[in-house]
């Protein structure tokens, strides 16, 4: 698939799995991982990404600490402020 943003996406991509043909074509990357109930590398820190474990469970495990509110500006509009904060302490 041709993507006019491919080089820019590659420049911003933290994925260390070099042989991947989807690198830089974010829609294919998201589609592939979503189909497998996973998240793309860019959801993970560099250390976590290098494990190649893209599972949602891995994401939750490495992000157990609360994400600062200022990093989640969409939360209020998507889920409402109370749902984000009421999830505190959930397992
Ligand atoms: S996150 Fe997955 S699909 Fe995306 S470039 Fe890396 S290995 Fe490929």
Considering the chains and any ligands shown, give keywords for the structure:
disordered C terminus; binds iron/sulfur cluster; mainly alpha; globular; 91 residues; 6 helices
Short description:
With 91 residues, the chain is mostly helical. It contains six helices and no strands.
Question: Structural class, please?
Answer: mainly alpha
User: What number of structural domains do the residues give?
Assistant: 1
Helix content: 40-55%
Distinct compounds present: iron/sulfur cluster
Weakly predicted, low-confidence segments: 82-91
Strand content: under 5%
Taken in chain order, the helices and strands follow as: HHHHHH
Q: Cα distance, first to last residue? A: 40 Å
Characterise the protein shown here.
It is a single chain. With 91 residues, the chain is an all-alpha fold. The chain has one domain (6-86). The protein is built from six helices and no strands. The protein has helices at residues 6-12, 26-35, 46-49, 56-62, 75-79, 81-86. The protein is globular, with a radius of gyration of 15 Å. The protein starts with 5 loop residues before the first helix and ends in a 5-residue tail after the last helix. 7% of the residues are buried. Mean pLDDT is 83; it is low at 82-91.
Q: What does the secondary structure layout of this molecule look like, with pairings?
A:
Layout lengths: L5 H7 L13 H10 L10 H4 L6 H7 L12 H5 L1 H6 L5
The site of iron/sulfur cluster has 10 residues, from helix 2.
């Amino acid at each position: 698939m041709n993507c006019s943003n491919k080089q820019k996406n590659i420049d911003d991509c933290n994925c260390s799995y070099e042989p991947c043909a989807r690198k830089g074509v974010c829609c294919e990357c998201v589609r592939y991982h979503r189909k497998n109930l996973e998240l793309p590398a860019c959801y993970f820190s560099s250390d976590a990404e290098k494990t190649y474990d893209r599972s949602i469970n891995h994401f939750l495990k490495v992000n157990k600490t609360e994400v600062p509110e200022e990093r989640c500006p969409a939360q209020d509009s998507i889920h409402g402020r109370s749902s984000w904060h009421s999830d505190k302490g959930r397992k």
